[in-house]
Amino acid sequence: MNKRDVLNEEEAIRILMQGAKMKAPERLKYRIMHQLEVEKKAVTSRAKKGSEESGDVLRDLGTIFGTMYALLVGMAVVTYILFGRHFLLSTEFVGAALFVVFVFSMLWLIAQLDRRVHAKSKRLFP
Amino acid sequence: MSEKERVKRVLSGDTSAFAYFVDSYQDMAFTIAYRVCCNEQDAEDVVQESYVKAYRNLHGFRADSKFSTWFYRIVYNTAVTHSKRRLWKVDREAEPDDALHLAEETLQAEIEAMDRKAVVNDILGRMPTGEALLLTLYYMEDHPVKEIVKITGLSEANVKVRLFRARKSFKEMLQRRYRISDIL
User: Fold this and answer.
1) Is the minimum CB–CB distance between B20 and chain A shorter than 8 Å?
2) What spatial distance separates the first Cα and last Cα of chain A, rounded to whole Å?
3) Does domain B3-83 have CATH number 1.10.1740.10?
4) What angle do CA B135, B136, B137 make, to 5 degrees?
5) In chain B, where are the structural domains located?
6) Closest Cα of chain A to B154: distance in Å?
7) CATH topology of domain B96-178
8) ipTM for the whole complex
9) Residues 6+ apart with CB under 8 A from A33
């Protein structure tokens, strides 16, 4: 078989094959575009939810630790007025302040765990 | 508008711009998926899944390659995963006895009446899946060997060898099963 025959054969196969391309069903495009719209909405709502969640975390952080610092300042002021400057550096006062910090930290931790449990149950049973 | 600009539009949030890619490539994607899955329903599902994957990963599309090559690779991988088929292992071969029997019984008139498209699809359906897919990619869309390498992940030498074998068996089956020799 010479080169020309091979080329003719190639061309014949090409013509045959190109005529046999399959056509996707009409409804397929609709299905795809619909699926993409759903996908886009899901991504948008996920992003919105994510930013809402991070906003909630920051709000909690501000509320709980804001109260804690206010309480510590209040304690320091009262201690200063009642017992004087030296008592602020005593072990009793530092211990009390650390106890307050521990209680508020636990409060914040419990609030976060509670939020996670709620979010999980919401995902399972919306 | 070029494909790159359309990709940018989709990435900026205009989902409707993606319709162009669906219109342009769904037929070939469907053909590739059908060649691998051998089933229209599965092929539809594969094409749909592939478009969703392409949409999700569009930011990863590098403009230095053609969109079609990138997308057909997704279709190919999705179809292979979906069909759980080992594509490059010979899973179907024409049985010589059956072919001979059919060749004897089939009348030339019937063959001529048959749609060429049906003949080609019938032969491709009887060939090993991988070989049929290579012929589809090479001849239907004029993909050069280098692009087939990118789509299938085979080596260039491997594609060339398999393509040669596929072409040979396609020709033989066409002549043996349908006695069509005048067109080749």
Assistant:
1) no
2) 71
3) yes
4) 95
5) 3-83, 96-178
6) 22
7) Arc Repressor Mutant, subunit A (1.10.10)
8) 0.72
9) B15, B18, B19, B22
Tallying the residues shown for chain B, one arrives at 184
The 10s digit of each residue's pLDDT in B127-158 is 888 889 999 899 888 788 999 999 999 999 99
Domains held by chain A: number? 1
Q: How does pLDDT run across B51-98, given as a tens digit for each residue?
A: 999 998 888 888 778 899 999 999 999 999 988 766 666 555 444 444
Angle made by CA atoms A94, A95, A97, in degrees to the nearest 5: 65
Whether this model's pTM surpasses 0.95: no
CA–CA distance, B75 with B53 (Å, rounded to integer): 9
Do B77 and B48 form a contact (C-beta atoms < 8 A)?
no
What is chain A's alpha carbon radius of gyration, rounded to the nearest angstrom?
35
Nearest-Cα distance to chain A for B31, in Å, is 5
- Tell me which residues of chain A, numbers 17 to 46, contact chain B at a CB-CB cutoff of 8 Å: 17-25, 28-29, 31-33, 35-37, 39-40
